Amino acid sequence: MGDDLLAAFGETVALLEREEAGRDAMNQPVWEERPSEIGGVLVSFSAGELGDDMRPAGQRTDAVLCFPSGFGRDVRGMDVLVRGLRYRVEWCRPAPERNVVPYGVTAGAVRIDG
């Protein structure tokens, strides 16, 4: 499936990656966030309707993100911007070895309101 067609089925989200920007007066690291855009991500906001026994470790899930095939990173613990709102990835399932759909890594995220 071509990248243009895949992008038509998903949307662009931004992973917020932390990198050290320097040191403060106490020689502690100062961090800044660098957004890294990923296109063609399927986003489902109906994840909150799942029963508790369906969610990994009983965690609240506000959105499920399905990343395109070829994206193999573990995004657990990372923040992600979806439609301008900030979410934190709480769980992540690796891509299956054999897949019939053009999506691999699946991640569940909770909304960060503050």
Which secondary structure elements does this structure contain, and how are they paired or packed?
Blueprint: H1 3-9, E1 11-23, E2 29-44, E3 63-68, E4 79-82, E5 85-93, E6 103-111
Antiparallel strand pairs: 1-2, 1-4, 2-3, 3-6, 4-5, 5-6
Structural notes for this entry:
- The structure is a single chain.
- The protein has 114 residues and is mainly β.
- The protein has 1 helix and 6 strands.
- The chain has a 6-stranded antiparallel beta barrel with strand order 1-2-3-6-5-4.
- β4 and β5 (85-93) form a beta hairpin.
- The longest helix is centred in the first third of the chain and has 7 residues, at 3-9.
- It starts with a helix and ends with a strand.
- The mean pLDDT is 81.
Strand order of the largest sheet: 1-2-3-6-5-4
Shape: elongated
Order of helices and strands: HEEEEEE
Number of separate helices: 1
